Amino acid sequence: MASASSRPRLRPVETIVVPTQDGDRVLLLRDTMGITAEHATIPLPLVPVVARFNGRATCADIARAVSREVGQEVPVGLVVKLATELEEALFCEGPAFAAAKAEVVAAFHDSPVRPASHAGAAYHDDPAELTRYIDRECHARAAPQAAASGRVRALVAPHIDPWRGAVGYGHAYAALRAALPEGCDTFVVLGTSHAPMREPFALCKKAFETPLGPLACDDEAVERLAAAARFDPWADELNHKREHSLEFQCVFLRHLLGSKPARIVPVLAGLGEHQARGTDPARDAKVQRFLDALGEVVADKGAVVVAGADLAHVGPRFGDPAPLDATEREALEARDRESLALATSGDRRSFFSHVAADLETRRVCGLGPMYTMLAAMPAGLRGEVLHYEQNVDPDEGSIVSHAALAYYDG
After folding, report:
1. Do the beta carbons of residue 150 and residue 382 sit within 8 Å?
2. What are the two backbone dihedrals, phi and then psi, of residue 14, each rounded to the nearest 5 degrees?
3. Domain spans of the chain?
4. What are the C-alpha distances in Å from 264 to residues 89, 129, 312, 409?
5. Do the Cβ atoms of 343 and 192 come closer than 8 Å?
6. 114-408 CATH, one of 3.10.450.50, 3.40.830.10, 3.30.2350.10, 1.10.300.10
7. What whole-number distance in Å separates Cα of residue 226 and Cα of residue 246?
8. Beta strand 263-269 pairing with 186-192
9. Cα–Cα distance, 114 to 292 (Å, whole number)
10. What's the half-sphere exposure (Cβ side, CA atoms, 13 Å) at 69?
11. How far from 211 is each of 17, 257, 258, CA to CA, in Å?
């Protein structure tokens, strides 16, 4: 239990502003690591308190500082109560969180299977319903594409939930189904880590379960990547536990492949240090060494590279004061399409610098996996934008944009 002299530290969690039923707004704390499945909601007047839970200030210090900021007294007891509740709910660091994390880490490490964490919420958990949904709401709604002159060797698909991203997923995986390389049974699946990462990449040597059946892991390929890494590729393994950007791709791959045996090489791309600084990851020797090894795995196994990547996140839900108007939405699309043009050209360095330049305002969360895909896929592929969409929240107007891209060898 916290006290006036405690120094509460909020651990790294996802924070988004969401509307309430009575028309108000609250700050939602969500655990992307999977230590707890619960959410915490913070009334907006208490955000200045939680924002100071940095492990340096005591509860008494925080009460005084916030009192000065808001111009009225904030009782120390209120700060202590909030710190205690967040610690008990596992959102603040402390003995309860440490014990829970140790238990979750051990269980996940020992399990040979990564469960389908979002089945029944982000998509159907019933195999028949899931199949019907993908067939009718995804593939059937995707506009027919002209016959491809080559095979798909790399793919960008959304990682927004399949309810909202149905058409984007449909375009991506319909293109892959129509031009899947003959005999291909290995897929390098790249995802964004929505939880903070200590290292630039995180590996996972587990089969990924889906309601349609599992996708086996290519253990040999993962071990090759781990041996080549000059950082700890297992340091952030737990981030795989609830990361949806990989899980959704596995669902659509398993649907596409049916009962055909296939293997995946699951990789989470962080590159957070380089994203924050806007520096080319290729200048980092340990990053480039890993990318070289990943490219060798792709070449040796004839693998298709799949990146689960969304684009912009803008509007009140993500901290902006107001939703975008029509002119601003057009400007966002123009900026997104500039990024996509660089991506389809294969120019990974220009793509990275273009997206990193406004990362704090456009909040593109697919930069890491798309850059990694461009580095690892075979040279000389022809990129094509299959679909672009801005998904607009019907309640408060926030936008998540996403696209489907395919890269052909002919």
Report:
1. yes
2. -80, 135
3. 14-105, 114-408
4. 35, 24, 27, 21
5. no
6. 3.40.830.10
7. 19
8. parallel
9. 27
10. 14
11. 31, 14, 12
Helices marked H in 24-119: 47-50, 59-70, 76-88, 95-110
Nearest-angstrom CA–CA distance, 1 and 12: 20
DSSP letter (8 states) at residue 198: S
- Reported as type and span, the H/E element at residue 328 is helix 326-345
Structure tokens at 297: 């795995």
Tens of pLDDT along the chain (410 residues) come to 899 999 999 999 999 888 877 778 899 999 988 899 899 999 999 999 999 999 999 999 999 999 999 999 999 999 999 999 999 999 999 999 999 999 999 999 999 999 999 999 999 999 999 999 999 999 988 877 666 689 999 999 999 999 999 999 999 999 999 999 999 999 999 999 999 999 999 999 999 999 999 999 999 999 999 999 999 999 999 999 999 999 999 999 999 999 999 999 999 999 989 998 999 999 999 999 999 999 999 999 999 999 999 999 999 999 899 999 999 999 999 999 999 999 999 999 999 999 999 999 999 999 999 999 999 999 999 999 999 999 999 989 999 999 999 999 98
Distance CA 168, CA 159 (A): 9
Q: Which CATH number fits domain 14-105: 1.10.287, 1.20.120, 1.10.10, 3.90.980?
A: 1.10.10
Which are the contacts of 162, defined by CB distance < 8 A and separation ≥ 6? Answer: 122, 123, 133, 134, 138, 169, 248, 251
Tokens 């990924």 label which residue? 208
pTM listed for this prediction: 0.91
CB atoms within 10 A of CB 352: 27
